[in-house]
Every structure is written in C-alpha cells, then in structure tokens.
Design goal:
Helices cover 42% and strands 12% of the residues. It is α+β, with helices and mostly antiparallel strands and 222 residues long. It has one domain (15-221): NADH Oxidase, CATH 3.40.109. The strands form two sheets. The protein has a four-stranded antiparallel sheet, sandwiched between helices. Strands 3-4 form a two-stranded antiparallel ribbon. Strand 3 and strand 4 form a beta hairpin. The longest helix has 25 residues, at 67-91.
Length: 222
C-alpha cells in the first residue's frame, strides 16, 4: 500500500463491526514499509473510546518509530524471547506436535527476529489507581486498537513480554513510576491477509444458567 496515497480519514470506515471481530487475528509477519503517523493516531483514537471505570480514561499510547529506538527494544525483547521459547521449541521437535501450534510458534519467532524492522512499536501505559494498574480499562482500549488496525488494513499483535524489563522500558519512554506500560503492539502492513482464526465452537464454552463440565469435555474431544 502506498503510504502517500492513503485517505486516512476514510480508510476502514466501511468495515462491518462483527466481520472485523471475526477476522482480527494476530499478525506477526509485517513489512518494514512506513506507516503514516496519521493512521497510527487514528487507531489510537479508537482506543480512547473504550470503557473505563468512572470514565477515568487512564491510558497513554507511545509509538516508537525511530530505527535506533526500535532496535533498543528489539535487542532486549529478543534476548528474553529466546529463553522463553526454548521449551516449546524443544517440544515442537516431536512429530506429534500440533501443526497449528507449530505455525503460531514460528510466527512468534519471526516477529522476535524481525522486531527491529517493524515500523511501529506501540506501547500502552496507564495511570495506576490505589497503587494498582487499571488494566480493566487498558485492555479494552488495546482490543479497540487491534480492531481498528484490522479495519484500516494494518497488521498487529499483542505482547506483554517487554514487561519483564518494564521498569527500564518505562523510564526509557519517559513515563513516571505511577504510569507503567502493560503491553506492546507491533504494528505494520501485513505480509499475509486477514481471515478467520481457528477457534473452537462457542457451544463448547457457552451456557445458560449454570456451567456444565460435560459440555466442555465434549468440546475438547472434538
């Protein structure tokens, strides 16, 4: 997509809500092409329409786009990711390892290896309340951003791995101690396409009046 010819104001406005929800999957293979700042602003604006207790709107969004700053994050992220993924990588050597799980892992590995090339690393932060992060507001805002990315054709995914070096990152971003980050969203133009992700049937996890473990067991057996 040519970033110079994008009508940001109209882009994504015609995507139907439920169709967007059903086809918003984590996209971790992203092109290095730049994303217009106005488009990042647009998807973050969608985040601000999330609900929050007392309408406190505790969120802040910090888009890291400069190559050297992206590299700073990528180097630290990759070091942690390599240690995190090793058990799964070893398990995936078993021929019986589920193919879908192997594909997901390979996509996550690709993201870690190419994180420095991703054009936008979006951090979501928020004021604490009574010493606790207001994640009940921040994660709905994040979901809004992911849906907005789907609508405008951007690829994105949600990761919290950076919180293992969160205090260092937050200070590097210039955030005060009572406004920590809770997530990072790598955003860019997707290499692949949007489609419905594989999900088990809602009938295996939906109940009227009370929980039925037999339904769950039947769903797992399918």
């Amino acid at each position: 997509m040519d970033a110079n010819t994008i009508d940001v104001e109209q882009l994504g406005e015609d995507v139907r809500l439920l169709d967007g929800m059903r086809t918003t999957r984590a996209i971790r293979r992203l092109r290095p092409d730049p994303v217009p700042s106005a488009l990042i602003r647009k998807v973050c604006e969608a985040g601000t329409f999330a609900p929050s207790g007392g309408n406190r709107q505790p969120w802040f969004f910090i888009a890291v786009t400069e190559p050297q700053r992206r590299m700073w994050i990528a180097e630290r992220y990759r070091k942690l990711f390599d240690a995190y993924i090793q058990p799964a990588w070893q398990a995936a050597k078993d021929p019986s390892y589920p193919a879908a799980k192997r594909r997901n892992m390979q996509a996550a590995i690709h993201l870690a290896e190419h994180l420095h090339e991703v054009p936008v690393l979006l951090f979501v932060a928020g004021w604490t309340r009574r010493g606790q992060p207001q994640t009940q507001a921040l994660f709905p805002a994040i979901q809004n951003i992911l849906l907005a990315c789907r609508a405008v054709g951007l690829g994105a995914s949600l990761t919290t791995l950076h919180t293992a070096f969160g205090k260092e990152t937050d200070a590097w971003l210039g955030l005060p101690e009572n406004c920590p980050t809770c997530a990072m969203l790598p955003i860019g133009w997707p290499q692949g396409s949007y489609r419905r992700p594989q999900r088990r049937s809602v009938d295996s996890c939906f109940f009227f009046e009370h929980f039925d473990p037999a339904v769950v067991e039947a769903g797992l057996a399918d």
